[in-house]
Design goal:
The complex is a heterodimer of chains A (270) and B (219). Chain A has 270 residues and is an alpha/beta fold. Chain A is 37% helix and 26% strand. Chain A has one domain (7-258): Rossmann fold. The longest helix of chain A is centred in the last third of the chain and has 21 residues, at 246-266. Chain B is built from nine helices and no strands. The chains are: A alpha/beta (270), B mainly alpha (219). Chain B: Residues 19-207 form the ABC transmembrane type-1 domain.
Chain lengths: 270, 219
């Protein structure tokens, strides 16, 4: 048996006031993989990401990060034990998340945004944290933006600061919530380049997106979600070329048709 | 009885000397008000229904009754329940308690303007709740309510004049003593008013400097 997956989600269920947002979700993400999670809006993609950082507490099921249970663990004899905040916080740095709106701290410079969580959460000495912050921001092309506050950064730059902030915690897994949606369309290529570079370092990633092209060009595997369930999951090429699930086929047809409309309106002469 | 500028100038040194008392008390009161107001805000944010109901009663009492009565309660009523406070301690307690409520109310208003996403991001990074308050929420909150705090500080400075009625020898009481000896209330009252005006102008100006600095950082 090989090493445990970096992320193992089993039987994860979440209900909001009787509405099932996640319905017995199973998902494994192995080291170095990039998994794109696609699906129509409201299908539960974002809820799943929020559960994976315990911002949302699932009603049932288990999450394992690098072999360690997060939030709730199964004890011998079938007893389920809930972890306390301290135990959950200890595991949270292992799961880096980059939010759609980035959520940087506006009262700190870009560098301070990256340094502060290292000193506060990991207890790193300030020099070491600063060195790590400078290294990450430089790698992400922000060497000349480190002393700026978030309001003085563009959307793409803010996103890269948010990525650096999460990476500085040395996570086992990075989660991205719709990384292209809050940015101008011409920046999509840039985001793709950043995520590809990240993949080059062997980072394991789970990327929620509704952009099929983006998912297809980035991911090793694609998981399709609808009505809170993962309906189909497999190698990206297979999913794109030969989707088995009718709802996935429908979804792909829809977004592809949509894409054609966009293309024809942009270049009406062709 | 006319106004004599020379007499005003001659009593100013005594009034300015007495202003040290008002300034000292105002500083102590503001420090307590900030610390207690912050603590009260954090307690209220826990949203414990019974606790918040009690706090709401206290707040409506503080807001709905005159500060002077609150000072009298601290000085004349508390001894009846075994708390015999000196005039200064009673006065500082009453005004600090009053000011705490206003600080907490403005902090609560500021809290609503801090984007919840930032707090979620902090939580997801593994920051414990106390670190989220100290490193993320409070620094932003204080910068946002600087104008309100400056206003509150001027109110507190003026409030210290009320302590003259419970025998604290401050600017106003000094002025009254001078006036009753010289029968010249005109200059003495103008003089004490000028002393308060100068203190509050200094506070307002330094507040404006702080505001423009925070505005430059746009937080």
């Amino acid at each position: 048996m090989s090493a445990p997956p970096v992320l193992r989600v089993s039987n994860l269920t979440k209900r909001f006031h009787g509405v099932t947002a996640l319905d017995k979700v199973y998902l494994d993400v192995h080291a170095g993989q990039i998994v794109a999670l696609i699906g129509p809006s409201g299908c539960g993609k974002s809820t799943l990401l929020r559960c994976l950082t315990w911002l949302e507490q699932p009603d049932d099921g288990f999450i394992e990060v690098a072999g360690k249970p997060l939030g709730r663990e199964l004890m011998p004899g079938g007893v389920v034990r809930r972890q306390n905040r301290r135990q959950i916080d200890a595991l949270r740095p292992q799961v880096g998340i980059v939010f759609q709106q980035f959520h940087l701290w506006p009262h700190m410079t870009a560098l301070e945004n990256v340094v502060r969580p290292q000193t506060v959460v990991l207890g790193r000495p300030r020099d070491e944290a600063t060195r790590r912050g400078i290294e990450l921001l430089t790698r992400l092309g922000l060497a000349d933006r480190m002393d700026r506050h978030p309001h003085a950064l563009s959307g793409g730059q803010k996103q890269r600061v948010a990525i650096a902030r999460a990476l500085a915690m040395d996570p086992a897994l990075m989660l991205f919530d719709e990384p292209t949606s809050a940015l101008d369309p011409e920046l999509v290529g840039e985001v793709l380049a950043v995520l590809r570079a990240l993949a080059g370092t062997g980072m394991t990633m789970l990327v929620v997106t509704h952009e099929i092209g983006f998912a297809a060009s980035l991911a090793d595997r694609i998981a399709f979600m609808d009505h809170g369930r993962i309906l189909e999951e497999g190698p990206a090429r297979d999913i794109m070329a030969a989707p088995k699930e009718p709802r996935l086929r429908n979804f792909l047809d829809l977004v592809r048709a949509d894409h054609r409309i966009v293309t024809t309106t942009v270049t009406p002469t062709e | 009885m006319g106004f004599k500028l020379n007499y005003l100038l001659s009593i100013l040194p005594r009034l300015i000397g007495a202003a040290a008392v008002n300034i000292r008390l105002a500083v102590i009161i503001m420090l307590f008000a900030l610390a207690l107001g912050t603590a009260l805000t954090i307690v209220r944010s826990l949203k414990i229904v019974a606790v918040n109901a009690c706090i709401a009663v206290v707040i409506s009492f503080v807001r709905g009754t005159p500060l002077l009565i609150q000072i009298f309660i601290a000085y004349y009523v508390l001894p009846a329940v075994g708390l015999d406070l000196s005039p200064e301690v009673a006065g500082v307690s009453a005004i600090a308690f009053n000011s705490m409520v206003f600080v907490s109310e403005s902090m609560r208003g500021g809290l609503a303007t801090i984007d919840a996403g930032q707090i979620e991001a902090s939580t997801a990074l593994g920051l414990p709740p106390h670190a989220i308050w100290l490193k993320v929420v409070l620094p932003q909150l204080f910068r946002r309510i600087v104008p309100v705090l400056i206003n509150e500080a001027t109110i507190v400075v003026k409030g210290t004049a009320l302590l003259s009625v419970i025998t604290v020898v401050d600017v106003l009481r000094t002025a009254q003593q001078i006036a009753s000896a010289s029968y010249r209330p005109f200059e003495t009252m103008i003089g004490s008013a000028l002393v308060f005006l100068v203190i509050n102008l200094v506070i307002s100006l330094s507040g404006r400097v702080a505001e423009s600095r925070f505005a430059a950082a746009r937080v």
